[in-house]
UniProtKB/TrEMBL annotation, chain A:
Highest classification ranks of the organism: Bacteria, Bacillati, Bacillota, Bacilli, Bacillales
Name of the protein in its database record: DUF997 family protein
Keywords carried by this UniProt record: Membrane, Transmembrane, Transmembrane helix
PANTHER family given in the database record: INNER MEMBRANE PROTEIN (PTHR39174:SF1), INNER MEMBRANE PROTEIN-RELATED (PTHR39174)
Pfam hit, one: DUF997
Transmembrane segments: 20-39, 59-78
InterPro entries tied to this protein: DUF997
Automatic annotation (TrEMBL), chain B:
Protein name: Sodium/panthothenate symporter
A cellular component term, taken from the record's GO annotations: plasma membrane
InterPro entries per the UniProt record, alphabetical: Na/Glc_symporter_sf, Na/pantothenate_symporter, Na/solute_symporter, Na/solute_symporter_CS, Sodium:Solute_Symporter
A single GO molecular function term of this UniProt record: pantothenate transmembrane transporter activity
Gene: panF
Amino acid sequence: MKQQNIYDNDPRYKIANREALIGVGLAVFNFIWWFVFAYGLGGRDPSEYSYVFGLPAWFFYSCVLGVVVMAVLVTIVVKKWFVEVSFDEEGEEQ
Amino acid sequence: MNWQALIPLIGVLLIIFAVGIWAGKYIRSSNNFMQDYFLGGRSLGGFVLAMTMTATYGSASSFIGGPGTAYTEGLGWVLLAMTQVSTGYFVLMVLGKKFAIVTRHYKALTMVDFLKERYRSKWVVLFSAFSIIVFIFSAMAAQWIGGARLIESLIGIPYTTALFIFALFVLVYVVIGGFRAVALTDAIQGTVMFVGTLILLIATIIAGGGLPNIMSDLAAENPNLVTPYGAEGTLTPAFVSSFWILVGVGVVALPQITVRAMSYKDSRSMHRAIIIGTIVVGIIMLNMHLIGVLARPILPGIEVGDKVMPLIALEVLPNWLAGLVLAAPMAAIMSTVDSLLLLVSSSIVKDVYLNYIQPQASHRRVKRLSIGITAILGVIVFLMALNPPDLIIWLNLFAFGGLEAAFIWPIVMGLYWKKGNKYGALASMVTGVGLYILSDSFFPQPFGLHSVVLPVIISFFVYVFVSLSTQDKENSSVELIG
């Protein structure tokens, strides 16, 4: 199979691998943010909770702000570091 | 019967129906039936892609069962639901460009096509097709029940009649329209979900007298409702974190999701879909589950969790608007059902029939068979849903877990690790599914984790270990894609 080597060295795969790793990195960050705020602030007795916009602080930071932070982060990452590539094979009909 | 609420609901459904028929016309004139019917001709743009992902994902688990459980458990369940935000970016980033390029190269139309070309093994294909058919079937039954429940509580007709109406509706447009119809209607449904939940959330907050008021009502009833630990304090951090695998990153292995990751037009569509998807999934999940919690002080004492959504909508909104908003969960269920239905029929026609029973089947025969099997499957699910169990969310999650345990490593490692081979893939699938079913039946929460976690971890090591120890057997016969 001649295509084998072409496939091994395809520069598009370098891009793809890097972007997949970015995805993993974002998920790890997302998890830490979610966990630390939820159980860090939410772990005490409910009578001691502080409230932000009427919601318990742990919930506000972990769930509400968490979504906003992830949306902004994902937008920046995609716009800055994601590269446009062609999915079709050169010299092949699609 | 509540006609004021019913008319807008029917209106939305009719629009969706019309789109299905329109997409069906496109298919009849197509000369590449398989690719168009099962994959929409790989032509999805960014917005449609993001919406179809969200809609498929935001299934009855989030829309009916989810808010119902949030009603019982309090804010802890919203926290759990938020693990789903990661799906918005993770799936498309991780499968990403590599999956798009490789599946085009393989000319794959289904996830099983990809596995078939990657591993070149009959057993991998048959086991995959079998898992899809079994697990997706149970997921589908759960969705139909949810859909029928919704119609039941909205119109007040008997469950069986509601189920019949629902089934007829879904069947007609999936059968004629195929993937393109499903993706397009998903886009409409996703938008309805997004706007609908937003309106309902605001109306619920107003009806409850503002957030501080609702929160103090909740805390007065049971302080646990405002903690991350659930009403009875049973939602431990380990258990809730497990959902990062079950409904978060593990979703990468669900066939109904992966098939979407091979259907988009170009990398620009993919980039847009990642951004739109993250925002839309995040907002829908947050709104939907928060509504469930906030409904509690307003409408105390609802016993069947599935009815929380319809009842709160009818309570806090004018009737016509409630009908419009309730098109959202209805839309969510339908869009999940239609894609699952298509998936099972593609698995039977494409993965089993065309691969192993009749590879030479004519174009016309395949076409008739695809449509016929889709219809027959619908009827079987209908019969199964006639006698339904009560809490649909668990049924649904069982199917998710099984598929994830089966496919996560054969797909992800198959894409990124050259040395993975068919022995590793098969061993990992069998271990994953086997352990999951055993664990779920006999040790429901090992170490406080959800029963899907350990099988997923163990099957990773099985994949790597078996692949490495069979390197000699598996020479260069497989085309490498690393």
